[in-house]
Amino acid sequence: MSPTEQKVIDEIKAVFANKGLAAPEITPRSPIDLSLGLESLDFAELAVRLEMAFGRDPFSESTVPPLRVVADLAALYEAERAPRRD
Fold it and tell me: Which of 28, 40, 60, 79 is placed for a possible disulfide with 71 were both Cys, Cβ 3.0 to 4.6 Å?
C-alpha cells in the first residue's frame, strides 16, 4: 500500500469517526460508492479533508477519470503531485 493510499484510507476512516461510526475494513480495492457506507454529504466532507491533506483539489483542476476504488482516488492525488510541465 502506498503512503497516498494509506492517507486516503485514514481520511475515509476520519469521516466515519466524525459521524460516530466505526469504519468498515477499507483497502485500496474497496469501492468508492454508496456501498462503502457513506452518504453524498460524507463524500463532500471527504473531498474537503483530502484537499486539506494534499493541498489541492484535483476535482477543480482537471477532468477526473472514473473513480471506482480507493486506489483510483489515491492515484488521482499522486498524479496531481507530479510537477506540471508547460
Answer: 28
- Residue 20 DSSP symbol: T
For the entire predicted model, the pTM comes to: 0.85
29 touches 6 (CB < 8 A): no
Choose the CATH number for 3-81 among 1.10.630.10, 3.50.50.60, 1.10.1200.10, 1.10.10.10: 1.10.1200.10
6-26 residue pLDDT tens: 999 999 999 999 999 999 999
- The pLDDT tens digits of the residues spanning 21-50 come to 999 999 999 999 889 899 999 999 999 999
What angle is formed at CA 54 by the lines to CA 86 and CA 3, rounded to 5 degrees? Answer: 105
